[in-house]
């Protein structure tokens, strides 16, 4: 099948399919740790260099996992991909695979709490980390230098929805031969053009929109075949970061409806943002799809959509936010996102609670800030629930 002629929605259904001799319609799930060889010579040859459809051990690769990897790579427009146990396993595996003592990473300051934690850990091992305002290109220019190993950022930051200019940051990084690593979870593969815009490596927590039903953990690293198989895979397979075949199978089923789900969620997110913008109980509403967002034009050029996420700053700080959260009936309180069910999160006391008050303030994570992941419920029902909770 010529993937280059297909739309993303078609790729999400068909790309990477491997059928057994039985010709099954649904993707097969191969639940096995190892694989048998016809001879000792065949085992020796496979350990020296495994072919495209030859497997050694589930930690190294698996037919179900390979289907999932090929399908996401086709969606993302990369040569290859490696699926991991979680999104953070993908981030950790990518950064650890390229770094050693003395390496230099430049990262956007506005990151998911676990990403910030990982960067802190890396500094303990002699890796230099410089944090910058991801939206300020001058700060990127000042921080990236000869010898910088990589730049790392979320294309849309969690939870304050700052949008980083992938093209501009990639140009800055590539002038110094630095690798560009993009955590693209909020953009989703549906709205992503990260590779076209200069990214070298694209990472997803497939737990989010790709699974889309809150069922399982997963992650994936997308890039060139050389990077995925010669740089990332050796670290990931030896450190135990490979995804379970069962989870990969669940993610494959999630991919078939992802395009439809994500577009519906984004339409609802925009409707909610328009309905709540200017509400008296909100001191701020952040949605990249609204013209008042600081990076609205960049968002439209980079993604073509405002995405599925909103941030609401509720009057009354933590108490005001908790009061609203506890009044919600349809929207659920959790710390996941990208689910078919709408989810609300209070970052200051959950995902970013380990940061100091000063660090949270610098990132714009106020005590009243709430992150909203819009699901597949009817937007009118969600708007009614949110307005009722806001009083």
Structure characterization notes:
- α5 (113-124) links the parallel β2 and β3.
- The protein is built from 14 helices and 12 strands.
- It has 391 residues and is α/β, with parallel strands linked by helices.
- α1 (8-14) runs antiparallel to α3 (63-76), α4 (87-98) packs parallel to α5 and α4 (87-98) packs across α9.
- It folds into 2 domains: 3-254, Type I PLP-dependent aspartate aminotransferase-like (Major domain) (Aspartate Aminotransferase, domain 2), CATH 3.40.640; 259-390, Aspartate Aminotransferase, domain 1.
Provide key terms for this protein.
alpha/beta; 41% helix; Aspartate Aminotransferase, domain 2; 7-stranded mixed β-sheet; 391 residues; Aspartate Aminotransferase, domain 1; 5-stranded mixed β-sheet
Instruction: Characterize the overall form.
Output: globular
Derived structural class: alpha/beta
Identify the CATH architecture of the largest domain.
Answer: 3-Layer(aba) Sandwich
The profile of the biggest β sheet is:
7 strands, mixed
Give, in order, the helices and strands. HHHEHEHEHEHEHEEHHEHEHEEHEH
Radius of gyration from CA coordinates: 21 Å
Could you list the spans in which at least 5 consecutive residues all have pLDDT below 50?
none
Q: Give the C-level CATH assignment of the largest domain.
A: Alpha Beta
By DSSP (H or I, 4+ residues per run), the number of helices equals 14
Task: Strand order, main sheet: write it out.
Answer: 1-7-6-5-4-2-3
Could you estimate the helical fraction of the residues in percent? 40-55%
Strand content: 5-15%
Indicate the mean pLDDT. 96
CATH homolog superfamily of the largest domain: Type I PLP-dependent aspartate aminotransferase-like (Major domain)
Taken together, the total number of domains comes to 2
